[in-house]
Amino acid sequence: MIIIGEKINGTRQEVAQAIRARDAAFIARLAREQVDAGSRYLDVNAGTAPDREPEDLAWLVRTVQAECEVPLCLDSANPTALRAALAVVDRTPMLNSVSGEAQRIAGVLPLALEHGTDLILLALDDDGIPATGEDRMQVVDRLVGLAVAGGLQEEKLFIDPLVTAISTGTNNALLTCDTIRRIKVAYPKAHITCGLSNISFGMPLRGLVNRTFLAMAVQAGLDSAIADPNDRELRETMLAAETLMGLDRYCLNFNKAFRAGRIGPRPD
Amino acid sequence: MIIIGEKINGTRQEVAQAIRARDAAFIARLAREQVDAGSRYLDVNAGTAPDREPEDLAWLVRTVQAECEVPLCLDSANPTALRAALAVVDRTPMLNSVSGEAQRIAGVLPLALEHGTDLILLALDDDGIPATGEDRMQVVDRLVGLAVAGGLQEEKLFIDPLVTAISTGTNNALLTCDTIRRIKVAYPKAHITCGLSNISFGMPLRGLVNRTFLAMAVQAGLDSAIADPNDRELRETMLAAETLMGLDRYCLNFNKAFRAGRIGPRPD
Question: Which of A86, B138, B154, B196 has its CA at 20 to 30 Å from residue A167's CA atom?
Answer without folding.
Answer: B196
